Amino acid sequence: MFSDTACVSLIAMLMVIHLIIGAPLFLVLGLGSLAMVVTVGVYSIEIIGQVPFTAIDNWALLAMPLFILTGDIISSGRVARALTDLGESLLGWMYGGLGMSTIGGCFFFAGTSGSNSADTAAIGKIMIPSLLEKGYERPYAAALSAAGGCLGIIVPPSLIFIIYGVVTSTSVGDLFLAGIFPGVLMALCLCVANYISCRYMKWGAQSKTPFSGSKLAKKAWAARYGLLAPAIILGGIYSGIFTPTESAAVAVAYCLIVEIFITRAVRWSEVPRLFFRSGIITGLIGPIIAFSILFGEVMSVLRVPDAIAQYMISAHMGMVGTMLMIMLLLIVFGCFMETMASIIILMPILMPIAHSMGVDMVHFGVFVVCTLTIGYITPPVGINLFAASAVSGVPYLKIAARIWPLCLALVAAVIIIAFLPGLSLWFR
What we know:
Belongs to the TRAP transporter large permease family. The chain crosses the membrane at residues 12-38, 59-80, 92-110, 140-164, 176-201, 222-242, 248-267, 274-296, 308-333, 340-358, 364-391, 403-427. The complex comprises the extracytoplasmic solute receptor protein and the two transmembrane proteins. Keywords: Cell inner membrane, Cell membrane, Membrane, Transmembrane, Transmembrane helix, Transport. By secondary structure, the protein is mainly alpha-helical. 76% of the residues lie in helices and 0% in strands. The protein contains 22 helices and no strands. The protein is globular, with a radius of gyration of 22 Å.
């Protein structure tokens, strides 16, 4: 007869195998949790229905479908194009400037969408044809869009910050503000990596356009509606007009008004399609959140997080060693698991460690989310790689082969963020 520890280890191994071969994440988490509950017998089987329902029955999670809808509205209208043009006018004069413009467009678009996949798809559709015209290799052009899309969950508003805030009882409004300068730093690091890549591969020399202050001013004016969205959202939250959750509804209303009545890029007849498409995405994400929390609950009952936390604390690696160990753990999880699931599963393990080191939970949240974003552009999960592949027609693995300099840039940015808490806590 196998011991409980051996059974749990076997079940965990089978879960990892099924994730690697591509089984649906919510199914793996749900069945894995059920198997552990039945095998160990320390919990009533009723938890399988109660915990997922309670997990979804959360006021803060109402923002999830609304921010997804916001990204769909913006990507279907003219605002995304205007934001990309602004990035080009700001950065296009440098060597490899069009690639930097792609990253800049992703940065500005992130301020309205709150979604990495929407960021990748919207900017990729616009910029990849232009990059190809200027001599960029197609896989690298797609890789730029995928890497820039990582900014979608760092620059406020951010859906992932909402999930982290719910799980750790941290102020979502503070997390939104804390993500501003780390998002800028990550964008700058990506631009540096693009510059070096273009110099080495001789791409982008013909894409340089002279800098013009008047052109920049015109493009900024044309992009005013997109730039105004994050200002309205953050201003409304910190003036007390609405909560972070309600800000998602404000974002949807604002974007609909802009795209239907002002830019007139979205017709009333297209609105049901946008709602339906966003509903499908929400329907895919919702079960993942529900069963991730169930899995985390089962792990807590089995005291797995406590054991791991105690081991890491007792290792006496110091502040630097522990943060680097956490970073490595997050990167590995990000490669195999969706970001929301990683946060929900890992936070019960990592929060005691962060508290023991005296790390502020807002700063820790930014560090965690920024590190997990690297998983969006690393196989085998790599959601942004799949989104870039869909809009570019380039096979997933070819994009992954070209994205490694941009991955290294994000790793460098995360290390800086980890040890410079002032970047995240500037507003305090």
